[in-house]
Amino acid sequence: MAYDPKLNKTVLTNPIHFLAFGFGSGLAPFAPGTFGTLAAIPLYLLMINFSLPVYLVITLFSVFIGFWLCGRSSEMLGVHDHSGIVWDEFAGFFITMIAAPQGWQWIVIGFALFRLFDIWKPWPINIIDKKVQGGVGIMMDDVIAGIYALVVLQLIVVVVG
User: Mean of the pLDDT values across residues 78-104?
Assistant: First the structure.
C-alpha cells in the first residue's frame, strides 16, 4: 500500500476509520493485517485477567461492532475490504486467544496461527472472502480464521500440557 497523505488524514481524524484501521495500524506501508494483529496484542493484554465470560462478551462485542464498523468504513472509502481495515484482525486474534494460557509463548503461537489461517484462507474462508460483501464479509473470514487458530492452539495446549 503506497503512502497516501489524504487517506492518513482521513483515518486519523475520523473515529470510524480510526477504529476500523486498528487505531492507525492498518496504515502500515506493507502487511497491514500483520500490523493490525500486532496492534491487537496490547488490548488482549488488558483483557487476559478478565474472567472467561467477560472475555467472551468483549470478544463477541468486537465481532458484532466490527460488522458495522468495517462495513461503514469500507462504504465511506468506496473500497470493499480495503487492506488497511484491520478491525477484523483484532476480533480474529481475540477469538484465537479464548482461554489461552498466559505467557508470551502463547501470544506468539496464537499470533502465528491466526496469521497463518488468515493468509492461507482454507475452506470455507476462501469462499466467504470472495462471495460475502460488506462488513459481514470483511469480518467473517477473520472470525473463521480465528476459530481455526483457536482449535489448533487449544490442541497444542492439550498436547504440551
Answer: 96
